[in-house]
Amino acid sequence: MTLFKYSAIDREGNERKGEIEAHNQDIAITSLQERGYIISAIKSNEQGNLLEMNITLGGVKTKDIVILSKQLSTLFEAQVSALRVFRLISAETESTVLREALNDVAADISDGSSITNALKKHPKVFSNFYVNMVASGEESGKLSETFTYLAEYLDRSYELTSKAKSALVYPSFIISVFFMVMYLMLTMVIPKIAKILTDAGQELPFATKITIGLSNFLVDYGLFFIAGLIIGGFFLFRYSKTDAGATVLDDLKLRIPYVGDLYSRLYLARIAGNVSMMLASGISMVKTLENTASVVDNKIFENVLNQITADVSGGKSVSDAMAVHPELPGILTQMVKVGEETGRIANVLDTMAKFYEREVINAVDTLVGLIEPIMIVLLGVGVGGLLASVLMPIYNITGTV
Questions:
Q1: Residue 47: its pLDDT value, please?
Q2: Do the Cβ atoms of 6 and 18 come closer than 8 Å?
Q3: Does 30 map to a domain?
């Protein structure tokens, strides 16, 4: 038997420390979990340091953060203590990652930490934007209003992003099915027809020769071709995770006809909305721009915002700093200039955020309306052209018999 030392949180949210004997660490963890403990750290006497049990299963869904913000707003408005608020919500949270984070936040608050510092320890769950908004609410004593604003903004942003992504799911699915059908036809149907055509001994049209050549290539090297695509996709994914790769791909995304405009408006709505909310909460312009750059989710706009931040820190006005960047439309720059002159820049940017959100929604609705007929035409031309290239010679053979 081995003696293990542990740190854990019980069902009431209290921190527990103690020792447990077990044959191995897995059995020790299971025994503690059966008692209702959430383990934060565990070690055996043979181990030199604690084995941290930070479970990271990726980020938390935006929808979960929206629901969390609404719950926090309601409970703070009811004047429930911060410690009890986070314990109550963590007990009802279904997301494992979020529940662990909220338990940690509750434990930190119990130890005397501020809500802001407790949230800051979980950057994969709470973004810089979220933490800074909470910090502003904590300083002003308006946490309930802050969480309400956050819930409304994140809900609006989530709906907008989901709508834009949904518009691209349908064409992606159709295009995938199209290539799958073409591959099956070229590897299973065309070879049998090609044998009939070549056995007839007639001169084949140029289009038919191309189709048969492509069919022969896929039959002989199709598996290697697919393997190459998979390997290429893997390395492209790895490349996209680097700064250089992300910059190239984000730039390409903005250059795609129509879709690039859609993405551009989406990022502009996000920038205007973030800046408006943070300024309205009393956060400085420089800090607002820094945090917006970190959450815009596009390297091109992130670099633009970083350059604007540097210029503003050097004494330039925001509108003058924005004016030199062609990625930002002139109307946005002019509206910011008006906001600076009137002292209502937060209100102006909120108006621009809602304007760009409507633009995205209208663009998505238009795209969805055009996708179906365009896809039907492309599928018809592709499959029809393939069939015509092999059926015309067959008709010629039967006509000469």
A1: 43
A2: yes
A3: yes
Q: What is the C-alpha separation between 312 and 333, in angstroms, rounded? A: 14
Indicate whether 57 belongs to any domain. no
Please calculate the CA angle 196-200-203 and round it to the nearest 5 degrees. 110
CA 201 from centroid of its chain's CA atoms = 57
* Residues in the chain where the model's pLDDT stays below 50: 46-58
Q: Using N-to-C axis directions, what is the helix angle for 62-77 and 143-184, rounded to 10°? A: 160
The answer to whether residues 196 and 269 belong to one domain is yes
Provide the pLDDT for residue 230: 93
Q: Are 119 and 127 in contact (CB under 8 A)?
A: no
- Kindly give the residue spans of alpha helices, DSSP state H, lying in 328-344: 330-342
Strand intervals (E) in 162-298: none
Tokens 């070229």 label which residue?
186
Q: DSSP H helical segments within 78-127, as ranges?
A: 82-92, 96-110, 115-120
Residues 41 and 81 in one domain: no
Q: What are phi and psi of 18, to 5 degrees?
A: -175, -165
Domains in the chain: how many in total? 3
Q: Is the pTM of this model over 0.85?
A: no
What type of residue is 224? F
CA distance 287 to 401: 82
Last residue of a domain, one of 92, 123, 156: 156
Q: What is the pLDDT of residue 348?
A: 92
* pLDDT value of position 76: 83
Domain that holds residue 125: 62-156
Give me the CATH number covering residue 131. Answer: 1.20.81.30
Instruction: Please report whether residue 82 resides in a domain.
Output: yes
Whether residue 91 is found in the same domain as residue 133:
yes
Contact 329, 301 (CB under 8 A): no
Q: What is the pLDDT of residue 389?
A: 82
Closest CA to 32 of 10, 64, 47, 60: 10
